[in-house]
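Action item from last week, closing it out:
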Amino acid sequence: MHADTQREGLRLLRPWLDIERAVLLAQVDSFTRQTGWLPVTDPSNVDPHYARGALRAELLPVLQTYWPVWQQTLSRHARQSAQAAEVRRQGDVLRDDWLNNGPASLGPLLPEGWKNRLQIIYQGKAIRLWSLGRPELLLAKLWALCDRGLDLGDCMALAPSAEELRQAEAWIATQDLNPDWPTHVDATLKDLARRLGHGL
């Protein structure tokens, strides 16, 4: 689903795709109180007999629990895919690593035995989703926070203890050869600890 689509001679605009559902619902509620207008709710949207209803009822709560910023990540990937499609349309070639689509490259770096700690976070009729165990998920998210600064929401939601932060720092500090990296990691994790109320 794109924000701007041409279909059968019509231009379909979806200007609210990047806005969180909770924000939209709050605006609708406010508008309803001010005007008396009532929105129409399509019951098939939550009917588990339809794929979209089953996803909303079963999969989305799991995603929200384990990856609180999954919607922003998905939106970012959608924008990147649209940009990639435009590059291809113009005849340019994309690098093989144009999209960092997950932690596959992280596997060889994780502590030994990480595969034994994988957890099933969703089991449906046709799909099974696995997640890293908490120790490795914390390492991946905290490393991403230090490296890219984009995973603060996930790190806050995981709420690592002061001890978990100390253990993670020892590993993360060895993942980059830049001489300033350990100092950066220390400062980033101290800021996270302060936000979490650990007082480190």
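Closing note: The chain has a mean pLDDT of 83.
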